[in-house]
Design brief:
Helix content is 95%, strand content 0%. By secondary structure, the chain is mainly alpha-helical. It is rod-shaped and about 65 Å long.
């Protein structure tokens, strides 16, 4: 029982960390897209 709960807790932790990493990478990608958009807008 304890082993099962430990494995489940570790899986939840890994999924949480993966979710945070995915969110951070998505925010960085959006920031880069906004920089490109702003640069294009300034040139016009």
């Amino acid at each position: 029982m304890f082993v099962t709960l430990s494995v489940l807790a570790s899986l939840i932790s890994v999924m949480f960390v993966a979710s945070i990493a995915s969110t951070i990478s998505e925010l960085r990608r959006e920031r880069e897209e906004m920089k490109v958009f702003a640069a294009r807008r300034v040139t016009f």
